[in-house]
From TrEMBL:
This is Nitrite/sulfite reductase ferredoxin-like protein. Keywords: Iron, Iron-sulfur, Metal-binding. GO terms for biological process: sulfate assimilation. Coiled coil: none annotated. Residues 99-203 form the Nitrite/sulphite reductase 4Fe-4S domain. Pfam families: NIR_SIR. The keyword Metal-binding applies. It comes from Cohnella phaseoli. GO terms for molecular function: heme binding; iron-sulfur cluster binding; metal ion binding; sulfite reductase (ferredoxin) activity; sulfite reductase activity.
C-alpha cells in the first residue's frame, strides 16, 4: 500500500447518540475495501488505515454521507457525547455540535478526550474524560483531569460552574491552547492539571481571558 495514515471516523453528534446508518456502514466498507482493518475505539471512533495518497478522497466521500473524518493519534478526539435523551433543546444538542466542530482533530501533546453530557446524570461519563462538559439547566459546568486508565485512576475536578453557552467554546479552546503551550513533552492532561493546579487554570479561564490572551508559564 506504500505510506499509510490512520484516520478516525465518527457519526455526527445527534439525537440517539453514536448512530451509523446501514448506508454509512456499507459505504465505509466500500470506500476502505475488502481487506481493510477497522478498529472500534473506546472513545466512539472507528480507526482505519488508508493509503496516504487516498486520504483526502476517502475523507471527502465519507463526509459526503454525513460522517466526520479526523486524524487519529495525538489530537483531540471528536466529542464523546451522550444520547441527548432529554431532547435536543434541553440536552443542548446544538451546543454539542458546535463544540465538536471547534475541538475535533486539534494536534495536542497527548490524545485528548472531551466528554459532553446533556444533564447531571452524565451517562457519557464526563468525569473520566480529560475535559468534561455537563449541561446544568441553561449553563454548563466544566471538569478537568479525569483519568480512567491504569491503576491510578481519578475523577475530573470541577474547574468552572455556571459557564454560559457563549463562554463555553472559548473556555474549552483556551484550556486546549494552554495545555499545548505549557505541557512538558508528552505530559498527560491529568498530570498537567495537577502540576499547574486547578486554581491557576481557573484563573486562566476566567472571563476576559478565554480564547486568547492567557498567560504562558515557564
Ligand atoms: S446525560 Fe442526561 S440528557 Fe444525556 S443521555 Fe444521559 S440522561 Fe440523557
Amino acid at each position: 500500500m506504500g505510506e499509510t495514515v490512520k484516520i478516525a471516523i465518527s457519526p455526527a453528534i445527534q439525537l440517539g447518540g453514536s448512530l451509523f446508518t446501514p448506508n454509512q456502514l456499507a459505504e465505509i466498507g466500500h470506500v476502505l475495501g475488502a481487506d481493510a482493518k477497522v478498529e472500534v475505539t473506546p472513545f466512539k471512533q472507528l480507526y482505519a488505515e488508508v493509503a496516504l495518497e487516498q486520504r483526502d478522497a476517502v475523507k471527502e466521500k465519507l463526509e459526503q454521507i454525513g460522517l466526520d473524518v479526523n486524524p487519529a493519534g495525538f489530537v483531540t478526539k471528536s466529542l464523546i457525547a451522550c444520547n441527548f435523551c432529554k431532547g435536543a433543546e434541553e440536552a443542548g444538542l446544538e451546543t454539542a455540535v458546535a463544540l465538536n466542530e471547534a475541538i475535533a482533530g486539534i494536534a495536542t501533546p497527548t490524545p485528548l478526550k472531551i466528554g459532553y453530557a446533556g444533564c447531571a446524570l452524565g451517562t457519557s461519563e464526563p468525569l473520566i474524560k480529560d475535559i468534561g462538559v455537563v449541561k446544568m439547566r441553561d449553563k454548563f459546568d466544566i471538569y478537568v483531569g479525569g483519568e480512567p486508565k491504569g491503576l491510578k485512576t481519578s475523577f475530573a475536578k470541577l474547574l468552572r460552574s455556571g459557564v454560559t453557552e457563549k463562554q463555553l467554546i472559548p473556555t474549552v479552546i483556551a484550556l486546549i491552547d494552554f495545555y499545548k503551550e505549557n505541557a512538558k513533552g508528552k505530559e498527560k492532561f491529568g498530570k498537567f492539571v495537577d502540576r499547574i493546579s486547578l486554581d491557576r487554570l481557573k484563573d486562566m479561564t476566567l472571563m476576559g481571558k478565554e480564547g486568547g490572551g492567557h498567560e504562558t508559564i515557564d
